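Dear Dr. H.,

I hope your travels went smoothly. While you were away I took the liberty of generating a structure for the chain from your last submission, since the lab meeting agenda had it listed for discussion. I wanted you to have the full record in hand beforehand rather than looking at slides cold. The sequence, exactly as received, is reproduced here:
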Amino acid sequence: MGFEFWMLALCALLLLVLGLLSFRWLDSDLTLLRAAWMGRCPEQVLADKVVWITGASSGIGEELAFQLSKLRVCLVLSARRGQELERVKRRCLENGYLKEKDILVLPLDLADTSSHDIATKTVLQEFGRIDILINNGGVAHASLVENTNMDIFKVLIEVNYLGTVSLTKCVLPHMMERKQGKIVVVNSLGGIIPFPFCSGYIASKFALRGFFDALRTELFDYPGITLSTICPGPVHSNIFQNVFTGDFTKTKLPKIPLFKMETSRCVQLILVSLANDLENIWIANQPTLLQAYVCQYMPFWILQGRYGKYISKVLGITWYR
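The corresponding predicted structure, in token form, is as follows:
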């Protein structure tokens, strides 16, 4: 018995070591990884759906539109910049899978919540249904709390949080009537990992996470409606290329070694999560993914001070006095 026990213990230890070694190559959480290996394919599940994407003029939103166009879905592209939406539409049409009538360009300002109901009716009039709403639009800022105008915090909440809540509320009754649909919010690992220098942005992402977790509990009578919170880490997108500072001027952040993921890979994983109705998903390269696990399951407060000092040193900020 003693020999068998130690052999089992050794095998368990080896499996643990192999698991830790393999973790360093992961770029998504274990639930999504399993779905990517053994779950349903986006090509089988998402084809012929009507998909509404906000923030579709660049970054993750643009890449979502591009990859979804290959699945022969009907697309609704929304953002504030109409000309950029037209460019994205042309890019999607170049695939050859969609026709002009399959893509609706619908300029939308998330902060203008009074326009969301009209926009929703426009989509329903055009396509007759909304199968998937992808809440991807948002803005960011980069400034210390003490240097940030209160109006910046208001804009971040109005756009990132209240704008997304408003559009979700407009689409939700239609899905409840049909008893089916998917509502997605492209959140951020900033809603998991407290990140210095963008407190207002982080707060809006924490708010989104709480709202969709609570909404999910209210839809227990509608199993056909799924809510997915996607939390990407650093990705090659434009959200931090032109960010608000503390007084509404725009700036470009200096290059920070954040181990950014290619946008195409991020979107591939998002589509897998949609096809498999996954609820809360983390997507990031290492070591950001490991940081998310540490923050979620260990006393992250031990590391917070050092983490903030590291970021401030990279950005050249006099942070702690």
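Two observations you may find useful: The CA atoms of residues 138 and 160 lie 5 Å apart. The longest strand covers residues 225-232.

With kind regards,
E. W.
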